[in-house]
Each structure stands twice: as C-alpha cells, then as structure tokens.
Write a structure and sequence with these properties.
alpha/beta; eight-stranded mixed sheet; binds N,N-dimethyl-L-histidine
Length: 359
C-alpha cells in the first residue's frame, strides 16, 4: 500500500533510497546479453527478484522441502534475545561503558539494525522484538533489490512496531554498501547489528563471499556485529528436494527469469519448452540450478538485438547455492576482518546462525 500524507506511519518511514538507477537497467541488459552469449549460457540470481520473483521466493520459504527458513526461524525463536545480548555486550565492552576516573557511567549505545536482502523481513521481527526489549527505539535499515518488497515490508513493520523507524535502500548489495560506507560517520555513535540471513551468503562463490563480507566490514566499526545465516552440508536427497519441491514453486521461481526476459526485452521464450533442474555437486559443496531446453529451439530477444539457439538438453546456469561446514565459516570470518564469536544451530543441525564480530 503506498504511503500518503495521511498515513499515520509515514513519518517513521524516513526514506526509501532508490539506488536502482538507469545504470541498473543498463547492467541488467549487459549481464543478460553477456550471459546468454557465454558458453555455457548463464543468467544471474540477482535478477530473480522482480515483483513475482520476490513473491515466489516467499512461497518457497513455505514449502515443506525448503527446510532452511524453518530451521533459521527455530534458531531465532529460541535465541534472538541471546543473540542481541551478545551483540550489545560486544558493542559496549560489557553492559555499559564508563570513565573510571570520574565514575561516570555511559548508557550502552543503542543498536541499529541493518539488513542486506531483507525481502519480506518476516524473520527480522524476532530480532526487532528482542532489541526493543532492551531499548526504547530502533532504526531499521533494510536493503533489497526489490523496491516493491521494501515498500510492503516497511509498511507492515511500521504498523506492528510504534517504536521503529525505517530508512530503506532499493539497491543491489555493492551499490548499497558503497553508499552506506559513506554515510557511516554521519550516523552517530549507535552500534550496528547487520543481518545477512537465510543462506544468502550461499549464492556467492568463495571469492564473492569474501568480497561481500569485506565490503560489509567497511560499513561496520570495531565491535559492531553481523548475524550470518549459512546452510550446512548434508545428504544429496534433502538438498535436491529443497531446490526442486513437489509443488513446483522453485521451478516457477527459476523459470520466471524467462518470463521477465519476455516482458522486459520482448523475448519470445516459450516457458513450457524449458524445465527446471537442481543438482547437488557434492565435490563443490553446492546445489546448482539450471533452466534446461526440452528440445532444439531458437529464441528472439529484440530488446537485446539477439537471437539465441538452444540444443536439446542445453542448460542455462541460473544459480549456485553453496553449503558450508563450521570450519569454512570460521575461516571466512577470519579472512574478512571478523571473529566468529558465537554459533547457534537448529535442533536437527541443518542450519547455522553465526555472530561475526568486527575486529
Ligand atoms: C536466496 N537464497 C538464499 C535461496 C537459496 O536457498 O539459495 C534462493 C533459492 N533458490 C532456489 N530456492 C531458493
């Protein structure tokens, strides 16, 4: 629902920064043309999230096979208060800072919450509630590629939490982190707890994950922290089912990339002539997702001035979902300017929430 002058929550929605500029459109064109000319063909996961793609991802989080969301929710339901307590203690050295000579005790600096890839921000509620038990107000800074998801989630959260203010960024991660690094000094003394939930880190390869965490580290001060969700390595059957559910929601999410190309570039993909494929590459420790051509065919993309041919069974690689073990997570923290201070897992040991403290 759009915010109007009569919207009682409008004052606490400080701003939605639209960092998705004309450059983003040019990058989408460039990435798509380059990816479809490459061998093997490739499309990029950040382009899954148009309005329908964001809704389909929310639906994926509800299918029985996609255990990740429920496992992370279980962790947050059990441990949100402890997570926030550890982040706040880290932020202040303990519960409060003080000047030993004068005996002046300063109150703990309030936490602000930054979330990369916030989507519908459903899981974030647990952390918002845990923080608001400790402090009277909270500034929430969500970043998401989808402006529609940001608008909707900001509205819902502001309705639920009268003590919340929101400043949102419609942007890809690189652009948002560069922007936020420039704004950090003007944000005052408060501490940041950054969130990167839901195994989003898994959609980067190792170099990409390092680059992302280093850029995020550039937005944080020493003692600020990052709660990083990471899915753990497990058996092939569980992983492949999680990315190829019986209802076909993940298939629709994947094939929606073709629908988007039809809409945005006037392409004539016959979506029924392609199928969704999800395979666990055990050696690489990742689920690989593809769109496969059911037969030989030619597709026109007038908006990109391209014609592309597919052989029968030829695949477009659309996403990797990397799975971690705890050693790899500790190494990732150490290599990017963090300490992994604490780790929580769901009872079945499928998923991890890692508190990385900036050092
Ligand atoms: C957004 N990301 C963490 C999801 C994942 O599990 O890699 C994207 C996804 N792709 C298919 N299903 C879910």
């Amino acid at each position: 629902m759009p915010h109007t002058a009569t919207d009682p929550h409008a004052a606490r929605l400080r701003r939605i920064h639209q960092l998705n500029t004309a450059d983003a459109r040019a990058a989408f064109k460039r990435d798509t043309a380059g990816g479809l000319r490459a061998n093997p063909k490739q499309l990029f996961p950040k382009y899954f999230y148009d309005e329908l793609g964001s809704e389909l991802f929310d639906a994926i989080c509800l299918v029985p096979e996609y255990y990740l969301t429920r496992a992370e929710n279980e962790i947050l339901a059990r441990h949100a208060e402890e997570i926030v307590a550890v982040a706040a203690a880290t932020a202040t050295g303990d519960a409060a800072t003080g000047d030993a000579a004068t005996g002046n005790i300063a109150a703990p600096a309030p936490l602000a919450l930054l979330e990369l890839g916030s989507g519908s921000a459903t899981k974030t509620r647990r952390l918002i509630e845990a923080i608001l038990k400790r402090q009277p107000e909270l500034l929430y800074l969500p970043v998401d590629i989808s402006a529609s998801a940001l608008e909707a989630s900001a509205h819902t959260l502001l309705q639920s939490y009268p003590a919340l203010s929101v400043e949102a960024y419609a942007s890809d991660y690189d652009t948002a982190l560069a922007h936020l690094a420039g704004e950090r000094e003007s944000r005052g003394e408060g501490r940041l707890l950054a969130l990167f939930l839901g195994s989003n880190i898994g959609n980067f390869d190792r170099d990409g994950a390092e680059g992302f965490l280093r850029a995020l580290r550039g937005v944080l001060r020493d003692g600020d922290s990052l709660l990083l969700g990471a899915d753990l390595k497990k058996d092939r059957a569980t992983l492949e089912a999680a990315y190829d559910d019986a209802l076909g929601i993940t298939a629709a999410f994947n094939l929606n990339q073709l629908v988007r190309l039809n809409r945005e570039f006037g392409a004539d993909f016959n979506v029924r002539a392609f199928r969704h494929v999800a395979l666990y590459n055990e050696e690489a420790g990742r689920v690989e997702i593809y769109i496969e051509s059911k037969f030989a065919q030619v597709v026109q993309l007038p908006g990109l001035d391209m014609e592309i041919t597919f052989a029968e069974g030829e695949r477009i690689h659309t996403e990797n979902s990397n799975k971690y073990d705890t050693g790899a997570l500790d190494a990732l923290a150490a290599d990017t300017g963090f300490n992994c201070a604490r780790r929580w897992m769901d009872e079945a040991g499928r998923f991890s929430s890692n508190l990385f403290v900036a050092r």
